[in-house]
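Example 3.2
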Amino acid sequence: MDGLGRRILVAAFDGWNDAGEAASAALSLLREEGAYEPVYSVDPESYFDYQYTRPQVSIDPEGNRRLTWPETTILRPVAPGRAPQLWLMTGVEPARAWQAYAAELIDVALREDITGFVGLGSMMSDVPHTRPISVFAGSDNERLRNELELERSGYEGPVGILSVLTQTAEDAGIPSATLWASVPHYVAGHTPSPKATLALLDRLEDLTGARVPRADLATESAAWEASIDAAAADDDEMSEYIRGLERTRDTWDSPEASGDAIAREFEQYLRRRGDGPGKPGRDEPRR
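Structure, written as tokens:
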């Protein structure tokens, strides 16, 4: 694809942008299935609040206790190639100094001669787990919208770090797009959503032209869907609620409504979540 070029930086973050851990899991899979080396990591002291995002302690194979600090790291492919390649930006949404944080990371992207930027996110939505996961693909770049058939969001209100990075990249001359997967809200706060991760990776491959691994996501997605089916079978109220979501989704998926419906779904989600950031728990919407 000419639109994003051949050196594409893909970003995903834990927290606000990551319902069902779908976006962060997509980046983790790319990292695990490919050969990457670190290019740059931010200084955590500058951007993270350790009372909000605490360091983690672990024990290594030799029995030593190790601290792992919150981070954001850019990784590049070890082996260069002529086909489109993906650089990765992964980490935790920062607590402060977002403008400096974004400028620092996009400066690194420019030094790496990055030609395109894609942010991955996932949002809690009123959608059924039994239907294909919808992915909103958008850009403020008119050329990209025309070349790649992307949408333009009309949302106005509070945003997460993905929006800040996307705008900073665009201002620096790096064409940018975002992909947002819709995760069923009745499961998104409780378990990872491999079906949403798979949908993001499928759309990422379509958008970039890069070869994207899926590992065992198809099998995991089927098991995830079956486990929710089993839980719903014992709950008449939940079963009826899901059937209602299915009817709504089938209407949205009609040829005359599908594009506008996905855009409305994305903007309605952001408006619902636009009451200012709080501190999410494991079972709360992660913004």
